[in-house]
Amino acid sequence: MTLAEQLLSGNRLALTRLLTQVENDTPEGRAALTELFPHTGKAHLIGVTGAPGTGKSSLVNQLALHFRRQDERRVAVVAVDPSSPFTGGAVLGDRVRMRDLAGDPGVFIRSMASRGSLGGLAQTTAGLVQVFDAAGFDIILVETVGAGQAEVEIARLAHTTLVIEAPGLGDDIQAIKAGILEIADILVVNKADRPGVENTLKALKSALELAHPVRHVFQHHGKLEVVEAADKPDYNSWIPPIRQTVATDGEGVSELADEIARHAQHLRESGDWTARDRSRLGSELDALLQETLLARFREQVPDVQYEKVLERVFQRELSPWEAVKMLLNGGAK
Amino acid sequence: MSERKTSPEQGDALPAPEPQAQVSPLKGRRIRVLVAKPGLDGHDRGAKVVARALRDAGMEVIYTGLRQTPEMVAEAALQEDVDVVGLSILSGAHMALVPRVLELLKANGQEQVKVFIGGIIPDEDLPRLKELGVAGIYGPGASTEDIIQQVKAATAV
């Protein structure tokens, strides 16, 4: 029996070994992903991202607990933490916040180091998610590294992306910048028991309303004024709700879980579920193509030739564009 | 408190293996280590220092935090598919906790996992722990360099 077959029959040792093979991108791992691929596409992938210290891990802990209590769906967690750019080592500390999940055979937590990837995930995170999907986990929570403004890869991977904010992390200028807030399907203001939560909520709300104009009714010089939304409201579009939570004691978590379920339903009804699946597989395909083409190129052009061209670039005899042309046309003569 | 400067293992430590050639320092297989504190003592300074040192040696260290049961340790070792489990115990309960962790690892099919212990371990317990299969035991004053070398040696393929 192959590891993949053992995994499909529910063997946890096979699952954990396969996760390692896939993470290390070994030939065995690739073969297993091929074998498992027909079994994927069933799980609800939920991404959790946000700045360091906003409470991503604690919230993942609470959400997983909630899903288990609510209807005993099997939950997998993939938690990514950064690798050192110098030694490649990493301390993966997300489990510390997830101790409530210990002892539940319906939960499986895997920590991952980012290994030099910059988008908030590791290069093989999508592969790990596929393994969990094939293994029959109903919900897969993917926690990114503490993300700043541009780590938006998670939105390509997940069906539902939660962006976690906390009070005191920035003013309304932060809220109108491009990047991480735009990818949110649900905005979560965690640590909602802290001072400053009103300001955070206000900044997020106004940022959202600019993106999704809504009908306003307000009092102006004593009479009611109505400002219609700029465009005709598109009832098919999803306006990200804002939820408040206190992850340390679970406050607001069940409402957040309801919102996640509502989003999943919206995706299914609007057809976005399949659209997202398609675009995710598309970007996976692109990434594999790039990698394979690069590997093929490296095979065809000997290192010496590459070094020679690089040296000419370094001497300012060639521009990088000319160098690429030369290398693709069979290398330096 | 004992003034033991080095681990009793140091004498028979294997020489460090040649580092394996890798395409990139950030790709490919890395040594994965679970650092756990089973039992009820709350002193995790040592565990954190070791975690940090192993990180700086290029390993991926999964830190679980305080007050773990042997069951929690073994389950985390399984889910994380680690090569090494490092247990930090200062409570004196090592003769109860360590055999149980080893037993559970074996029951899960992970008998290949190397177990290291750090903490306050009286000399008279050392032979029994080694007999059980503990790969290295470190007391106060042990050098992180020794720990790194021995973890590397124990996991060399």
Descriptive notes:
- The complex is a heterodimer of chains A (333) and B (157).
- With 333 residues, chain A is α/β, with parallel strands linked by helices.
- Chain A has 2 domains: 40-292, Rossmann fold, CATH 3.40.50.300; 301-328, no CATH class.
- Chain A has 12 helices and 10 strands.
- Chain A has helices spanning 3-8, 12-23, 27-36, 56-71, 125-134, 153-157, 172-176, 197-211, 253-270, 272-300, 303-314, 320-328; strands spanning 44-50, 75-81, 90-92, 107-113, 139-143, 160-165, 186-189, 216-220, 223-227, 242-244.
- Chain A has a 7-stranded parallel β-sheet with strand order 4-2-5-1-6-7-10, sandwiched between helices. In chain A, strands 8-9 form a two-stranded antiparallel sheet.
- In chain A, helix 2 packs across helix 3 and helix 4 (56-71) crosses helix 9 (253-270).
- Chain A is globular and about 80 Å long.
- In chain A, 39% of the residues are buried.
- The mean pLDDT of chain A is 87.
- With 157 residues, chain B is α/β, with parallel strands linked by helices.
- Chain B has a single domain, classed as Rossmann fold (3-Layer(aba) Sandwich).
- In chain B, 36% of the residues lie in helices and 15% in strands.
- In chain B, helix 2 runs parallel beside helix 3.
- The A-B interface holds A 12-13, 16-17, 19-20, 24-25, 83-85, 87-93, 95-96, 99, 102-103, 108-111, 113, 115-116 and B 24-30, 32, 51-52, 54-65, 68-69, 71-72, 75-76, 78-81, 108-110.
Judging from the principal axes of the Cα atoms, what is the shape of chain A? globular
- What is the CATH architecture assignment of chain B? 3-Layer(aba) Sandwich
What class do helices, strands and sheet pairing of chain A give? alpha/beta
Number of domains of chain B: 1
Which regions of chain A contain 5 or more consecutive residues with pLDDT less than 50?
Answer: none
Structural class of chain B: alpha/beta
Radius of gyration of chain A, taken over Cα atoms and rounded to an integer in Å: 23 Å
Q: Let me know the average pLDDT of chain A.
A: 87
CATH topology value of chain B: Rossmann fold
CATH hierarchy class name of chain B: Alpha Beta
Q: Class of the largest domain in chain A in CATH?
A: Alpha Beta
Task: Encode the helix/strand succession of chain B as letters.
Answer: EHEHEHEHEH
- Helix share bin of chain A: 40-55%
What is the distance, rounded to the nearest whole angstrom, between the alpha carbons of the first and last residues of chain B?
37 Å
CATH superfamily of the largest domain in chain A: P-loop containing nucleotide triphosphate hydrolases
